[in-house]
Write a structure and sequence with these properties.
It comes from Nocardioides luteus. The chain crosses the membrane at residues 19-37, 72-93, 105-123, 153-171, 183-200, 285-313, 325-346, 376-402, 422-440. The chain is mainly alpha-helical. It has one domain (4-441). 64% of the residues lie in helices and 2% in strands. It has 19 helices and 3 strands. The chain has helices at 17-43, 59-65, 68-91, 99-108, 112-119, 122-126, 128-140, 156-170, 178-199, 201-207, 209-218, 236-240, 249-265, 269-275, 282-309, 321-325, 330-356, 382-409, 422-441; strands at residues 56-57, 223-225, 231-233. It has a 3-stranded antiparallel β-sheet, covered by helices on one side. α8 packs parallel to α13 (249-265), α13 crosses α15 (282-309) and α17 (330-356) packs parallel to α19. It starts with 16 loop residues before the first helix and ends with a helix.
Length: 442
């Protein structure tokens, strides 16, 4: 049996139907309200949205954050975490109490979202691959990297690697054994270090799946940079407006959203009836799961591309519109991550912290958390959890719709300000209503 996300966990109660209906109606009302508001202001000649957001300068904090000592501090923190990770990966017991599984599937994969929202691109700061590449580059001496990374490659490697990690977490039957996790992470680290040495930091910015994920989510934080590299405080939408399109960005957001949707759908009764049917063998169920994991991102990408390309009535070619509007999907992804993983992150994250104090299962207490009880707060406050889930999806929808409208108004002529945005609006509403339905059905 495949453990949930490789570490097991509690399954939340489905959302009450009235919450789903209220959320869907609210999403529709807010969407059309934003459409009317933005188009009216744009038709009157007012500039809508942060085309060139500047933000509030933070010179003192910027000097601290940009100092070599600050950078070195977080490099050391990253290396210490990595050293502990290697220790438990090779010397820890091969059972569910080994903290490597929670560190990988909970702290890293799910924790990227809240940590990046709060602190900016955290993985870029603590990535062991970046630290090793920086050291090897220093030993090599000054000069450009030996090879040049083609701009046409874009984020495509990150998209495929994100899908590969989702496969390990959600589909692979032995995802709760040390061997497969060690192998996947070892190959990932080796490829990132080799690519960083050959192609420079640009390789890590475009190909490291965790850095790409963290950096995209960080665009919804309040921490931003000017073109000169100075630290500023911005609104989340102002920061998101600085995320420029690139090849493969549509693939990245489709994989992130599609794999989360697949994770929700595989908890629904129709899916469980299919894969647990007596007529379906274990190997067939495994094949179906693999096909579904690939199909959901493809369906998300197809639905999104059709909706955005139907919006194309401006000067931008229709084929370029999906990439131009792709950053507006990031808030929807973040909202759905919060809705789907909140209780899992809370409970499994605390359990991982407890296990981390006793990595070898010999009764030690390295960090003073070995006897810490795991809080099941959300299990006893189901109504609060349901409200948070609906609120997270709706807030993500509102931010995504607002961002999409701003970007659409930059390319649409005035006579098509409303008709040009309707397909895009329906696409965003479809994502939100579909997410609410899965939270209700699971």
């Amino acid at each position: 049996m495949i453990l949930t996300h490789g570490v097991g966990g509690r399954q939340d109660l489905p959302l009450p139907l009235e919450y789903v209906i209220a959320g869907a109606v609210l999403a529709l009302l807010v969407s059309f309200g934003l459409l009317v508001l933005t188009t009216r202001r744009a038709a009157e000649g007012e500039v809508v949205g942060p085309r060139n957001p500047r933000g509030w300068p933070l010179p003192r904090l910027g000097r601290v954050v940009d100092s070599p000592a600050w950078t070195a501090l977080w490099r050391v923190v990253g290396l210490l975490i990595f050293a502990y990770f290697v220790l438990v990966a090779f010397a820890g017991a091969d059972n569910a109490l080994n903290p490597i599984f929670g560190m990988t599937y909970v702290w890293l994969w799910v924790g990227i979202v809240p940590f990046s929202l709060l602190f900016g691109p955290v993985w870029k700061a603590i990535s062991p691959a970046r630290t090793v590449v920086a050291g090897l580059t220093w030993l090599r001496g000054p000069g450009d990297p030996p090879l040049h990374l083609s701009a046409r490659l874009g984020y495509w490697p990150a998209a495929f690697t994100l899908l590969a990690f989702a496969w390990l977490e959600l589909v692979y039957p032995d995802n709760n054994y040390l061997g497969p996790v060690r192998l996947w992470l070892a190959v990932y680290l080796a490829v990132m270090i080799l690519g960083g040495v050959l192609f420079g930091e640009e390789f890590l910015e475009r190909c490291d799946p965790f850095e790409v994920y963290s950096s995209m989510v960080a665009k919804l934080s309040v921490w931003g940079r000017t073109q000169a590299g100075n630290l500023v405080l911005r609104t989340p939408l102002g920061n998101l407006d600085t995320l420029r399109p690139a090849p493969g960005m549509v693939a990245v957001v489709s994989v992130l959203f599609g794999t989360i949707v697949y994770d929700s759908y595989r908890e629904s009764p129709p899916w469980l009836q299919l894969v647990q049917s007596p007529e379906i063998s274990g190997s067939t169920a495994y094949l179906i799961s693999n096909l579904a994991l690939i199909s959901f991102p493809l369906l998300m990408a197809g639905f999104y591309c059709v909706g955005t390309m139907l919006t194309g009535v401006g000067d931008v070619p229709r084929r370029a519109l999906p990439a131009e509007l792709a950053p507006s999907i990031v808030p929807i992804i973040v909202g759905y991550v919060v809705a789907h993983y909140l209780s899992y992150f809370w409970e499994s994250g605390l359990a991982t912290l407890r296990n981390a104090s006793d990595p070898f299962g010999n009764g030690s207490d390295w960090f003073g958390t070995a006897d810490m009880p795991v809080s099941y707060f959300f299990a006893f406050h189901a109504t609060l959890l349901a409200v948070i889930k609906v609120a997270a999806v709706i807030i993500g929808h509102v931010l995504g719709v607002w961002s999409a409208h701003i970007r659409a108004l930059q390319v649409l002529p005035k006579k098509h300000l409303v008709t040009g945005q309707v397909p895009l609006l329906l696409t965003m509403v479809g994502f939100t209503v579909g997410g609410l339905y899965l939270l209700f059905a699971a």
